[in-house]
Amino acid sequence: AIASGLLNRGVITGEQIFVSGPNLNRLQRWSAMGAFCRTDNGEVVDNSDIIFLCVKPHVLGLCAAQIKSSHVPSTKDKDKLFISVLAGVKLNILENSFSFIDGLKIFRVMPNTSVQIAEGCTVFTPGSRVVQKDVEKLHFIFSAVGTAEQVREEDIEAITAMTGCGPAYVYTFLEALIDGGVKQGVPRQMATTFAAQTLLGAAKTVLLTRKHPAVLKDEVCSPGGATICGIHELEKGCFRSTVINAIENATKRTIELGKKSAEILSSKDNAQQ
């Protein structure tokens, strides 16, 4: 999603992308973008100025070990930027895992899938060796594909549950909104277009007017009208509580993923000792 967004915005070209994975056949979509595809993570690091770490949290140790085994140290290492999108994995774990990179500069980042259409929401926290010009470079990258903002690391798990997972919640609500229209006789394609535009318009209204969502909701709910009757049904179904619970549980799961990754890395370190 990140690469698609940057390509669509003209920030990069396909020829500037190096990507690696265990199976070249699974990288065909990257080849179609014009990217150089490899099976060696170390080769990607050696040939890149900005490295995105996009593996599952539990394979971080394996990924770092592969890079360490083939990486050729260079004076350029201190100028490279590493960007981790691993859910729940904290900066101290990332810095320890890649301590073999001289002067490691790493960011912990959480974008969402809407970056692919330049409407993403990305938060980031810089590592201990990152300087202001590095922050500006990262901000330029992600602000090209949406909103980007630096946050405290302790807030990232909750923000991940809200904005990283959020598109899935919205799509679920959107699907229900569409199905509701279809049930009442609206053709599905028409219902899809109208429902999506309704969500888009509502979101833009919040951002542009800066009004509290409750105020905007009340502006739609006329006394004794259809909207307040619909809202009553949502409240009967514990709609808001369900959404809040979803974010709470997604936050807990993000924290669990980070802890599992740390435990795996710790057990490997102990085994090597």
UniProtKB/TrEMBL annotation:
This is Pyrroline-5-carboxylate reductase. Pathway: Amino-acid biosynthesis; L-proline biosynthesis; L-proline from L-glutamate 5-semialdehyde: step 1/1. It catalyses: L-proline + NADP(+) = (S)-1-pyrroline-5-carboxylate + NADPH + 2 H(+). Its EC number is 1.5.1.2. HAMAP family: P5C_reductase. Belongs to the pyrroline-5-carboxylate reductase family. Residues 153-257 form the Pyrroline-5-carboxylate reductase dimerisation domain. InterPro entries: 6-PGluconate_DH-like_C_sf (IPR008927), NAD(P)-bd_dom_sf (IPR036291), P5C_Rdtase_cat_N (IPR028939), P5CR-like_CS (IPR053790), P5CR_dimer (IPR029036), Pyrroline-COOH_reductase (IPR000304). GO terms for molecular function: pyrroline-5-carboxylate reductase activity. Gene3D superfamilies: NAD(P)-binding Rossmann-like Domain, ProC C-terminal domain-like. Residues 1-88 form the Pyrroline-5-carboxylate reductase catalytic N-terminal domain. GO terms for biological process: L-proline biosynthetic process. It is an enzyme of class 1 (oxidoreductase). NADPH binds at N41. Keywords: Amino-acid biosynthesis, NADP, Oxidoreductase, Proline biosynthesis. It holds the Pfam family F420_oxidored.
